[in-house]
Amino acid sequence: MKTRSFVVLLFALAGLLAAAACGNSPASATSVSTVTVSGVAPSVGSSAQFSAVATLTGGVTEDITGSATWSSSNTAVVTVSATGTVTALATGSAVITATYSGVAGTDSISVP
Question: What separation in angstroms does the CA of 35 have from each of 27, 57, 73, 77?
């Protein structure tokens, strides 16, 4: 009876390990190969939603717009919210950056 219980426990553990290895987990730092940022520069006084997509090492893409950390290279021209909304404050140029799992992607924009 002890041997049978041990075998059942062994199969249960093997099943849990297999399920964990095949599960849908968020992208990790080692699995993100690129981040692509896209959007259209808003005019002064307006806002526009930008998006970020991570390409994983296997070629699978994942929308990370809400998970990325956003920034602007020129906050006198545009600011970026935590969700990727770009607001134009003045004419000029800026680089919008989205960072996810240590990988950064950029989009250079010019506000007319």
Answer: 12, 11, 17, 23
